[in-house]
Write a structure and sequence with these properties.
Elements (H helix, E strand, L loop, with lengths): L2 H4 E10 L2 H13 L3 E17 L2 E14 L3 H10 L3 E8 L12 E2 L2 E2 L13 E3 L2 E3 L2 H12 L1
Antiparallel strand pairs: 1-3, 1-4, 2-3, 5-6, 7-8
Length: 145
């Protein structure tokens, strides 16, 4: 079986105690022979509630490609690391795999997570219909007539 067929793209979002601790994730990824596709530098944020007695943490994310069989081992190693407060590893779908470095907004590269596009037509959720503001305004005008 080809090694390339077993490799999938993932994203890890993490909260680390400081910037140097965030570098440990990259070191661990290289130990598992993962290829880093994109790396967002960790930024210091104030936590909504204390995590392991920390009020501040460094939040960042990394897109990487790794053998699918190694992801569980990688996650177990991160759980044992006390310098990483929280993390989540998700499998990237094809829709999420965009090259954000080429996207531009106001002449500058876009940073942050990709946004999910909403459909133009209303969607049903439960017994309620979700509509956008334009449709809502039209319905209000109809009611007020």
């Amino acid at each position: 079986m080809d090694k390339e067929k077993n490799e999938k793209n993932y994203e890890i979002g993490y909260l680390a105690r400081n910037e140097h601790d965030a570098a440990e994730i990259k070191n661990l990824l290289s130990g598992y022979k993962a290829v880093i596709l994109q790396d967002e530098p960790a930024k210091k944020i104030k936590l909504a509630y204390p995590i392991k007695k920390e009020l501040y943490a460094h939040f960042g994310f990394i897109w990487f490609s790794m053998d699918a069989a190694m992801v569980n081992e990688f996650s177990k190693q991160l759980k044992l690391n006390s310098k990483i407060l929280r993390f989540i590893v998700i499998n990237l779908t094809k829709e999420m795999q965009i090259d954000r470095s080429t996207e531009k907004k106001n002449g500058r590269p876009i940073t942050g997570k990709p946004k999910i596009k909403s459909a133009e037509s209303p969607k049903k959720q439960g017994n309620f219909e979700l509509i956008n503001n334009e449709l809502l305004e039209k319905k209000l005008e109809e009611i007020l007539k």
